[in-house]
Each structure stands twice: as C-alpha cells, then as structure tokens.
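User: My instructor asked us to take a sequence, write out its structure as tokens, and then describe one feature of it. I'm not sure where to start. Here is the sequence I was given:
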Amino acid sequence: MTKDLFGRHRAVLPDWLALYYEDPLEITHGEGRHVWDAAGNKYLDFFGGILTTMTAHALPEVTKAVSEQAGRIIHSSTLYLNRPMVELAERVAHVSAIPDARVFFTTSGTEANDTALLLATAHRRSNTILAMRNSYHGRSFSSVGITGNRGWSPTSLSPLQTLYVHGGVRTRGPYAHLDDRDFIDACVEDLKDLLGHTRPPAALIAEPVQGVGGFTSPPDGLYAAFREVLHERGVLWIADEVQTGWGRTGEHFWGWQAHGRSGPPDIVTFAKGIGNGMSVGGVIARAEIMNCLDANSISTFGGTQVTMAAGLANLTYLLEHDLQGNARRVGGMLIERLRAVAAQVPHVREVRGRGLMIGIELARPGTDEAAPEAASTVLAEARAGGLLIGKGGGHSTSVLRVAPPMSLTVAEAEEGAAILERALRSI
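Assistant: Let's start with the prediction itself. The structure tokens for your sequence are:
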C-alpha cells in the first residue's frame, strides 16, 4: 500500500518535494511521543513533524478544543470579530515581553517572516535586509531571498537586497578559532564594517538557534551586541522564533532571551509548535511598527477560530505543565547522554544545542568534511530501531536533528538515546 502511495505521490506532486528514506514512511496516527505507520510499526518521534507537534500527539486538551470549536464554526476570516483570535493574541502579547505589543496571525512561519519583512521595509522605507549566513526563513519568494542556506535557496531573484552577516555558526567560518568574547567582538566589527558600505538597512533577521541549518547558534549575547549597533542607526531586529519559541530551548521561553541584554527584538515571528500540528503562525511587534502599513490588509485563513482554539489550549497546557522546565531537565540529560556516545563515534564532530533542540554534526573521521551518506545511514538505522529523527545542515555540513515533543519523559529520552547510539555505531 505504501509503495502504491509513493508511486501516486511521484506522479502528481513536484519532484522537489523532499521525502525522507529510500522507502518513504506513511504516518497514520500518533499518541503522546509515539507515531505509527501504515504497516502498524510504532516509532518514538524525536522530530515532531519538524518541531511542530510541540506538546504531544493527540493531546486530549487540544483535540477537545478543536472538536468543540469545529462544532460551532471553523472559519469566518478576519473581517469579523473573532473571540478565540483576540484571546490568543492577548496571551501571546503578554508572554512576548515586547512593550505595547500587537499580534497578527498567519498560517505558517514562512508567511510570518514574509509579514515581518513587509512591516520592517515599510516602517524603515528600505528594502535592504541583513540576514545571517546558514539561515533559513521559509519558502516564499521574499523569505527565500533572505535565506543564507544554498540548499534551500532555489533562486537568486528577490525583491530585497540581502547582505549576510557572520555569527550564526560558532564552530565554523573565519572566527571559529576565537573564544566567545573575541568571536562576538569580531562579528560586531564585521557588522559595523558592512554597515559602512551600504545604505541604511531595514532590519536584521536572525534565528536565535538556526533550525534547518543544523541547530547552530552563536555565543549568548551576540544579538544583544548587534542590537546596540543597529539601534544607533534605527535598524530593526527581527527574531525568527519559528523553531525556538515557547520554551523549547529550556533555558528561556524565547530564544532571543539568551541575547536580551539590550532589550527585546522589535519584531518576533513564531509558528510551528504553537498550534501543536494545526496551521498557526504569527508576528509580534510594537504597535508603531505593526500599525505602519497605510493600505488595507486582512487574512483569509490566518487566525481561524479552530486554529486559535488549538493554540489557546496548547499554550495553556504548555504553561500549566511547565514544559519549558521539562525541556531544560530532560533535554540537558539527553544532550549529555549523546555527548558520551559521540566521544566513541569517530564520525561525530559535535553534539550541540540546548533544551530539546539538539544537533549531532557528522563529518568524515579526522576531517571537517561533511558526511551526508553517514547522516542518511543513521536516519535509516534509527528508523529501523523504532526512532524518527531529522537531518539538516548548511554549507558543507551534515547534521542530525533531534527535537522531540516537549513533554518527553526521562524513560523515553533514554530509550531514544539507546536507539540513536546503535544507529551512530552502525556508520
């Protein structure tokens, strides 16, 4: 049945629509931190639909909220008052730490970043954007135009002038040999030099932890240092929290808070986990920025009643059950466990991350060269052992991505680490 579905998939869907595994997987249902395929095989899910099933599969609180709301009304567009949208916007504004915050809901992280770019360029009257090397911000025309990852950038055409800044990758590049303080200083000097060669940009957009790029991040404080330079020139800071938001990194509720010395970002984008699988994204910005548009705008599908009900139930569950604290505790244990394994596997260059956002970078032994074939081997072996993980990486890197639902238990973390250890040793 799966082979038949694969053939039908290839016949009607784009060739560039990527699938994991030579023998692709059809997931039919899930519960908690587990999913099942069409053949009845059970898997521990350490990727959560690309960090989207943030809380748990089939979380009763969310499924109940969705079912009850669907029985009343599913959709009306933003042309009408929408109580669940207002209620979720109030909750999001409150936890954002942005003063006088306004919230606009979208259907995806791509659309959220698209909206942030629109706001920044309109507010600043500039189409120049600063972005980080190795970054990923979505698949729309404008978000592809600022993506600093060649593997996810299918065109050089863009409505924006994009300039790329050093700093998103700590252990590669021209400053990798420096200690953290000198690394930050060098990146700041590079930013100042770059700003001296261009017209005033609209904004810097940055992921606190680069997701598709392989869960890389700079030393804490880099973006705070950048913000000081940018603020002097009126340049906005957009934090792309599509993958890092809602406590996933454990230490903070938002990834930008590791760089919060100079205050919060001007704009924050979010998506993925807030809907726990429902299609929810959004933008948070100070009122003066959010309200700068001088033309009408609505959203047909952003903020629908049923997706807002899911977001409200999911956010409530996350806060009441301290899933941020769980990500810190269980994630910290999992990282240390994987580092102990990695010390005995020559192909592992680095285990990095924080909370339940962990990257395992693979390289050919004794070199810094990427080992994509090793990543594919581990991905397949993990699946055979009953574990689903992701992969990614940017320029000349191969990275396994581990990002389970944030309700992961200690026992499940141990089980997943044992499967992953066997898969890594199989390279």
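For the description part of your assignment, you could build on this observation: DSSP finds 13 helices and 15 strands in the chain. Try explaining in your own words what that tells you about the chain.
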